[in-house]
Amino acid sequence: MPEQSIPSLYDWLGGIDALNRLTDRFYQHVKADPLLGPVFEHMGADHPGHVATFLAEVLGGPDDYSKQHGGHPHMVQQHLNRHLSQEKRRRWVGLLLETADELGMPDDPEFRSALVGYLEWGSRLAVINSQPGVAVDPHAPMPRWGWGEVKGPYTG
């Protein structure tokens, strides 16, 4: 019996087109959200596409974010001194998952478990990196997420 190939999370969710639909619709919701709207009031029109490209790379797709924008250090830089709270983080994660449901993205337990795992991990790092005094590690590797990733504790 041939060994079955396991798709990346990126492939499973439908690639960059699906991520662009997700981030475009998500940031429409964000703009209208009373808690998150003010955080993103100065967001440029290209922001949803940048986030889609970042998520694509993290979830096993092409490394376009690293090539075009500077990888994880660049993403960390975007969160510096934003003073994000756990309340905003929880709303961001919840709204993204609601948008995924709205768009009919895969909702099988394995995929959603992996997606929620990344969103929890990544959004908690964003809160940490948004507080005063954080320095960007210019060599920080791009996170890569799969079907059952467990990351060690964040040590700065």
TrEMBL record:
**Pfam families tied to this protein:** Bac_globin (PF01152)
* Gene3D superfamilies for the chain: Globins
> Could you tell me which InterPro entries the record lists for this protein?
Globin-like_sf, Globin/Proto, Hemoglobin_trunc
Q: Where does heme bind?
A: 50, 74
Classify the source by domain of life.
Answer: Bacteria
Q: Which GO terms describe its molecular function?
A: heme binding; metal ion binding; oxygen binding
This protein is called Bacterial-like globin family protein
Q: Which UniProt keywords apply?
A: Heme, Iron, Metal-binding, Transport
